[in-house]
Amino acid sequence: MTDCIFCKIVAKEVPSQIVYEDDGILAFKDINPVAPVHVVIIPKKHILNINDITEQDVKLIGKIFVVIKELAAKMGVANTGFRIVANSGSDARQEVDHLHFHLIGGKELGNKIG
Ligand code: AMP
Ligand code: ZN
Questions:
Q1: C-alpha of residue 15 to centroid of ligand 2, in Å
Q2: Span 73-80, mean pLDDT?
Q3: Which of 38, 98, 100, 102 is catalytic?
Q4: Which of 33, 29, 35, 31 is nearest to 109 (CA)?
Q5: How far is it, in rounded angstroms, from Cα 94 to Cα 4?
Q6: What is the pTM of this model?
Q7: How far apart are CA 26 and CA 20, in angstroms?
Q8: Across the strands, what pairs with 114?
Q9: Which atom of ligand 1 is nearest to the CA of 38?
């Protein structure tokens, strides 16, 4: 999508601090981190949010979680703990309408959910 900031990051039209990339997945540091480790993991193809995931995306979404596991280890939070957040829609205050998973850690995290 032309006016999607994350598609622009995928296309390298907008710079980002990439920490992982393969054919279908990109991970980069969040521009406004809420913790010492705050990485955003996205599918390269434009999926709006969890509501738009289909059966065709099963492998892709599964791979994203393998990447998350590897990144948690690489960023040094696998043993200390981390949180995965995927905001979907307005009540969740999703700001970027391109499916993404926040990997957050590196400190004791506060309020759990909601
Ligand atoms: P959400 O509220 O779940 O939609 O989160 C969107 C996230 O994308 C926020 O944490 C933003 O800080 C982050 N973000 C927005 N623009 C960029 C960018 N250009 N590079 C890195 N992260 C970004
Ligand atoms: Zn997009």
A1: 15
A2: 98
A3: 100
A4: 35
A5: 13
A6: 0.97
A7: 6
A8: none
A9: 10
